[in-house]
């Protein structure tokens, strides 16, 4: 019985052949299931293919196929001399490449620019690779030591004092500015309808400036005594090192736990002394190269990197201030953000370049590039504040309540729990602002600063390379450089976002 039942389910004849299954993987599967699976997708695919055909193909033909690669002047890039339709004139880029990178920086001193760029790469690359150790030391060198070294490398010059002299100078400048503002109010009160009010306010401001001057008199006197020595830089350096090390020792816990802070402070000052001696900053330093000679990619990188590095701390501070429960801090943060977001960047650059000197004392000047950097940092910081505030708003309230239940202070809660999560949420927005800032650096050319595009436009006036394809070649080269930097930032931000949000993947 069992044999009969088992044989009843065994097929004795072969099945007919069936057609092969429709392929749904690989390139053919992509075309079948995504590109040509409906009339709408067929139309969109056709339009996209035509768009690529009429844009990518001519670009490749202009930049590579019909391009001229060798030549000494414009004659090599003319159609009548080349014998064919000329595309990109790359000999022009080869001839103008130093100008596009360094601007008018003296040729004999360009090694300083190369050394600065090499130091930046050496310090930045380990920060970008997550698996490399000593991130704290590397970050300290890049964000604090490198800007000082880069300043004296690029600009040159030496120092006549150190921390104590600089502090005394800034405080004295602050006191003189207040006193000068009071005298201005008194002079306006002589011809104004509200003369009594201006006279009272002016005298109060003058008295405030005089009081500050008396308070800082011991510091100013000590600075004058140091400047009177034969080695003012090293005398000031020694006094500053002692004062800062003692403060670090006390704040670090004194005799119980302050020895580590003291050792770190002494090591930092030893490193600073080595840099001062190697660069000869106590004897005038390197030859001075004024910023009006800077240009090209150098200015683009200086403005963009400075704006990116300084705008994020400003944005974080403003975002926290806007959420503060202290009315004065909250109102100031809101007013600051709305003011800088309400004016275009061109207006900010004009104000920083031409109007800011009017508000400074007569004996105090600020370099034109530094004024532009300050304006860009404040402008971008206002936008970053809103990005960070969006990330803070996305953090559940229970995070802060849990931290408070554990006994954490507001500073520890913000720095260890809330802010890291908020910044992780807004990585795309932050990087989008960074990319926008890198491209907006071209606006500094309107205030007589020659960035990459400014140097490129200046090179067009050379009659030696005046051809119909010169301008197109120059802008194509600049576009490639901008694309490399912006695309690199975009891809790295995507890598960081995926790495930090790995626990959120489905």
| Chain-averaged pLDDT | 84
In angstroms, what separates the terminal alpha carbons? Answer: 54 Å
Q: What do we call the CATH topology of the largest domain?
A: MetI-like fold
Which outline best applies?
Answer: globular
Q: How does this structure look, described?
A:
This protein has a two-stranded parallel ribbon with strand order 1-2. The protein has helices at about 1-5, 25-35, 40-65, 80, 90-100, 110-130, 135-155, 165-190, 195-215, 215-225, 230-250, 260-280, 295-320, 325-340, 345-355, 370-395, 395-405, 410-425, 425-440, 450-460, 470-500, and strands at about 295, 450. It has 3 domains: about 1-55, no CATH class; about 95-105 and about 290-505, MetI-like (MetI-like fold, Orthogonal Bundle); about 165-285, no CATH class. The protein starts with a helix and ends in a 6-residue tail after the last helix. About 70% of the residues lie in helices and about 0% in strands. The chain is globular. The chain has 21 helices and 2 strands. The mean pLDDT is about 85. With about 500 residues, it is mainly α. Helix 5 (about 90-100) crosses helix 20 (about 450-460), helix 8 crosses helix 10 (about 215-225) and helix 20 (about 450-460) runs antiparallel to helix 21 (about 470-500).
């Amino acid at each position: 019985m069992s044999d009969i039942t088992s044989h009843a389910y065994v097929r004795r004849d072969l099945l007919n052949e069936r057609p092969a299954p429709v392929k749904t993987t690989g390139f053919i599967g992509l075309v079948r299931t995504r590109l040509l699976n409906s009339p709408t997708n067929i139309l969109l695919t056709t339009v996209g293919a035509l768009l690529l055909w009429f844009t990518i193909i001519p670009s490749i033909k202009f930049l590579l196929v019909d391009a001229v690669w060798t030549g000494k002047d414009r004659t090599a890039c003319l159609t009548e001399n080349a014998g064919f339709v000329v595309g990109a004139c790359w000999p022009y880029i080869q001839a103008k490449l130093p100008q596009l990178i360094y601007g008018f920086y003296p040729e004999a001193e360009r090694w300083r620019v190369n050394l600065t760029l090499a130091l930046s790469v050496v310090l930045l690359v380990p920060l970008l690779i997550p698996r490399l150790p000593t991130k704290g030391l590397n970050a300290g060198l890049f964000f604090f030591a490198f800007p000082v070294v880069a300043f004296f490398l690029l600009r040159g010059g030496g120092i006549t004092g150190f921390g104590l002299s600089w502090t005394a100078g800034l405080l004295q400048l602050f006191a003189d500015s207040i006193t000068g503002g009071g005298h201005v109010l008194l002079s306006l009160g002589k011809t104004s309808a509200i003369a009594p009010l201006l006279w009272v306010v002016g005298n109060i401001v003058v008295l405030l400036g005089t009081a500050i001057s008396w308070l800082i008199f011991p510091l100013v006197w000590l600075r004058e005594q140091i400047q009177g020595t034969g080695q003012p830089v090293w005398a000031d350096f020694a006094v500053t090192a002692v004062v800062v090390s003692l403060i670090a020792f006390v704040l670090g816990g004194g005799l119980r736990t302050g020895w580590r802070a003291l050792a770190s402070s002494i090591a930092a000052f030893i490193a600073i002394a080595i840099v001062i001696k190697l660069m000869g900053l106590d004897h005038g330093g390197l030859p001075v190269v004024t910023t009006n000679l800077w240009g090209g990619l150098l200015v683009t990188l200086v403005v963009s990197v400075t704006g990116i590095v300084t705008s994020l701390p400003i944005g974080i501070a403003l975002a926290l201030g806007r959420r503060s429960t202290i009315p004065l801090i909250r109102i100031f943060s809101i007013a600051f953000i709305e003011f800088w977001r309400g004016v275009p960047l061109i207006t900010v650059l004009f104000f920083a370049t031409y109007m800011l000197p009017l508000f400074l004392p007569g004996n105090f000047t600020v370099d034109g590039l530094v004024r532009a950097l300050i304006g860009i940092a404040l402008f971008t910081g206002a936008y970053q504040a809103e990005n960070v505030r969006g990330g803070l708003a996305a953090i559940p309230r229970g995070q802060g309540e849990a931290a408070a239940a554990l006994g954490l202070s507001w500073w520890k809660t913000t720095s260890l729990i809330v802010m890291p999560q908020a910044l992780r949420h807004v990585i795309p927005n932050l990087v989008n602002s960074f990319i926008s800032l890198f491209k907006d650096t071209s606006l500094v050319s309107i205030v007589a600063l020659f960035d990459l595009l400014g140097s490129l436009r200046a090179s067009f006036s050379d009659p030696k390379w005046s051809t119909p394809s010169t301008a197109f070649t120059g802008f194509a080269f600049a576009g490639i450089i901008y694309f490399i930097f912006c695309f690199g930032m975009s891809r790295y931000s995507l890598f960081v976002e995926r790495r930090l949000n790995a626990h959120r993947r489905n």
